[in-house]
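INTERNAL AUDIT FORM
Audit reference: QA-55
Scope: verify that the stored structure record matches its stored sequence.
Auditor: D.O.
Record contents follow.
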Amino acid sequence: MIGIRSSAFIRWTGLVAVGLALMLAVASCVGVPTVTSYVTVEAEQQGGDQAQDDATPDTAAQSAEAQQTEEQQEEPTVASERSYAGTQPAPEFPPLEWLNTDRPLSVADLRGKVVVLDFWTYGCINCMHVIPDLKRLEAKYAEELVVIGVHSAKFENEGDTDNLRQVILRYELEHPVVNDRDFVVWRTYGVRAWPTLVIIDPAGNVAGQQSGERIYDLFDQVISSLVAEFDAKGQIDRRPLGLKLEREGLPETVLSFPGKVLADADGNRLFVTDSTHNRIVVADLETYEVQQVIGGLDEGFVNGDFASARFYRPQGMALSADGRTLYVADTENHAIRAVDLVGGSVETIAGIGQQTRTYPGREGLGVEVALNSPWALELLGDTLYVAMAGSHQLWRMELSAGVIGPWAGSGREGIDDGSLSQASLAQPSGLATDGERIYFADSEASAVRAADLDAGGRVTTVVGTGLFDFGDVDGEGDQVRLQHALGLIYNPDDGLLYVADTYNSKIKTVDPASRQARTFAGGDDHGWRDGTEPLFYEPGGLDLAEGRLYVADTNNHAVRVIDLATRETTTVVLQDAAGLLTPAGDDGVEAVKLEAHQVAAGEGVVRLSVTLPDSYKFNDLAPSSVAWDASSGDGLIAFDDGSNEQRIVRPEWPLELPVTFQSGEGEVSVDLTIYYCEVEKASLCLLHNVRLQVPLAVDDAGDSVLELDYTLPVTP
């Protein structure tokens, strides 16, 4: 191991000693077991897991210092004139798998750029919290900065390159990521905790290292200074790297990484948090016809009507007893939103749109209290329970009073049972209740746990034994191993908890009384398959209604339904005749210009043909559509019914439209929404939106038929 860590901290500590303490007040996610014997300071912050080895003698003093809240910290004093340039060469990357680039990168390749190495593991909430800061820095220093995600996986499932690719797509990362599954780069740089970030200067030397969240202000200062210093020497390279992103060429999906699902039997509605599309989809529970779409495709924090409201990767939901209000955990807005399903509006009832800077959180009026990644909700009477993943706690909100605050969990990350206020939790991400207690999926501990409802109650563990104890083992009590379970639901008919064992891509049952766990559905690997031997891909949420288990099958971009009696699994195909899932407008619509055409004036026909790549077919269960705006061609085309617009749902290909061509020249356009699927996965919908632009000349010569042919691009 190269001793970079200590020298890097000495460099920055000399500049902003108190500033580093301030940054570290929000915990890194976990320390990792290594051959050395230590517990990191970062791992003790705000519930950060400690390494499994014995602690060093000074751990207690470090831990006590770490528990200070940010209000107790002084503002950092920063020196005005100082070079941040490093002196120790950054080690080169070993041969590893790379994503978001078509070639391996090297430190030598990146000379002239400021480089930030982000050591992360994708299930860690603290690592997720760093992503927005990195995106801000990438936007500000678009020509001078290169971020490289060094993914050193905690969980076995996270080390798989295909799974890592899915997370890159889910969080819309646009920088290179290297799969450091064996911790080679991690150990080379002396990293001890997730997340840790290393800055390399444009000369290829290590400038500093920082662990924990909220890195933007400090990194902005350091990067700005490095750019100015090396620019003055003519040593900044502003040429683009020419990356090849994982998303390039991929088809669009109807849903994008749906996180949670809620089945309302009384109202005959299915609610889905279409998380990466930043919206909630409401469909008929029987026909799956889309009834409402709440929010837009772009992220934001906006109240208002359904069309103008904006969310940011929403997750859990809860429905009021009268079915009129849907509560939504707006996770990356760090807020709880209330959706008026009758009035058609969205309001914020808790959170301010920014992550809290107070550790471990405080009680107060909902709209005045900053939250920390609320991930799941459960409603009992007038009390809304919240899985506050970011602070490793359960919170609750008295809706009538509008007051919210911590309810269970000390804020330290761990799996220690005890009183509600003293127990340690580990990123709770799913909630359920039997009316007597709240059960929760404690994801970073791969555990199912329970919290009593009375104020003098306790937190107990049903299954799960430690932050680094995970696997895929059915059994009883401490024999059981799950892997980063994110969701669960209680079934009063059999007294069992159904658990989304996310990283094992399985659905399991857990008996809270006997502590027995059994696989209920899913195979030995992830994938997609319906029937009595189904496959799933990192399912994140569950709900029950009328003997059916609804599954948010996150990485399959689908909702699945399991009949509890027959164990037959089917896939929901959303019906969208009204086009609610594909809002009108130019946003996100690819424009393709076809070759110029010439037709004769007078009566004629537009004939449109669409061809799919090999091994794909049109999805007959989902409504493809064609929307033709005749006004786009300056009156070149008139439809026989006298209208300017034609929208055809479920067209027969080739589609023929009788028209009248009128003399002139211009460009006409037609919008296609094509639902299609792989032949072997007929229920999994893919979606292709495209605007075809056709230069057109109408005169006395030419044919009376306008032939338009479009072939969907081949999916890589």
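Auditor finding: record pair retrieved intact. The CA atoms of residues 592 and 693 lie 6 Å apart.
Action required: none
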